[in-house]
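step: validate -> pass
step: tokenize input -> pass
step: predict -> running
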Amino acid sequence: MAGTATTAGLEQLKALINKGAEEGYGIGALLGMAAEALEPGRVVFSLAPRTDFSNPLGTVHGGVLSTLLDSAMGCAVHTSLPEGAGYTTLELKVNFVRAVPLEGGRLTCEGTTVHVGRKVATAEGRIVNADGKLVAHGTTTCMIFPPATDQ
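step: predict -> pass
step: emit ->
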């Protein structure tokens, strides 16, 4: 798998997101995420905060921000995988930089791969608010499950 140029993961992700846009699919549909960009090794998702995203202090709950980061970073890895390969998050590290008000406008999260190997991939992500200010950033380590023919 290492060094193999492929768009299979990217094409699979595009098909899944297009289907989700029509029918609603998974966590992205639940939170109202929109795919802004899907490229090899790079994904951009956005979402608009809602009142049901609030924590007891009335700002966006950190779990929503973590989910947005996990989704963008994991999908960035997904775009780099060959056909039949899978992945799962092994580790997620999130740094919260500033509180996000519920009425603060759309959040945009960019996830990019740092390394994609045969068994492990790493990625990083950044969330900015509607003013372009950083609100959270993180890293992930993903385990890669190779296609059955590569095992």
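step: describe -> The two ends are 10 Å apart (CA to CA).
step: cleanup -> pass
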